[in-house]
Specification:
This protein has 231 residues and is an alpha+beta fold. It has eight helices and ten strands. It has three domains: 61 residues, Orthogonal Bundle (Arc Repressor Mutant, subunit A); 67 residues, no CATH class; 92 residues, Ferrous iron transport protein A (FeoA) (SH3 type barrels), CATH 2.30.30. A hairpin with a 6-residue loop joins strand 7 and strand 8.
Amino acid sequence: MSIQKLEELIPCFLELINVNGGESFPLQKIADELGVPVSDIENVIAIAQSNDLISEDKGIFKVTEKGKEVLRIHREKYLHDRFIHPRKGLRNMIRRGRGGKRHQHGKMNDEFIDWDRHGLNNSNISYFYRNLEEIEGRIEDILPLAYLHTGEKGIIQFMFGGRGQVQRLADLGLTPGAEITINNKAPFHGPIEICIRNTCLAIGNKIAKRIFVKPIGKLSLRTRLAMQKSR
């Protein structure tokens, strides 16, 4: 595998190490998770160590502060490109090298994500980043609630928005760690009836797209395909 391909694997490798919580993680299991040979994982580890992205103590890997920054950028880019503003040709590509003092916090290979376009300004961008870093599990394992179908369940992992938006959802019981069930979905992107904490309520499709969950239990073929496509 080329150096470029190995470097592209590093954020996914860091996600796995971060989720593992400082416990021993066999290289074969990591290779199976990422779908590559163990030899490639060994090369990824060598690159990560040489760049001070991970530390090792008695065979246990931990993500360093520098690695956490790489991980944050990976999560930010993944969330933006897959769900918030999917790339569909030149018109929707992330704008490059935009000047000024707007919110260009997500710098990846000379590309900037302007979160101001998506409702995040100076007063809540730090809150957004903190919530992004606190996601439990791999970013590749989550989907917007709107992607689930009737009868399916998920565990809330993250809510996209500023402090005020997230607090309004929290007031409805929509907080990280809560289990949520889709009771019914209206056609044509209409309201979605959900059940959470023994309470049923209806939310708009746009709101459901801002609530990210880790699907659990039995999933429909469409949801499984959506998860595969998002990776």
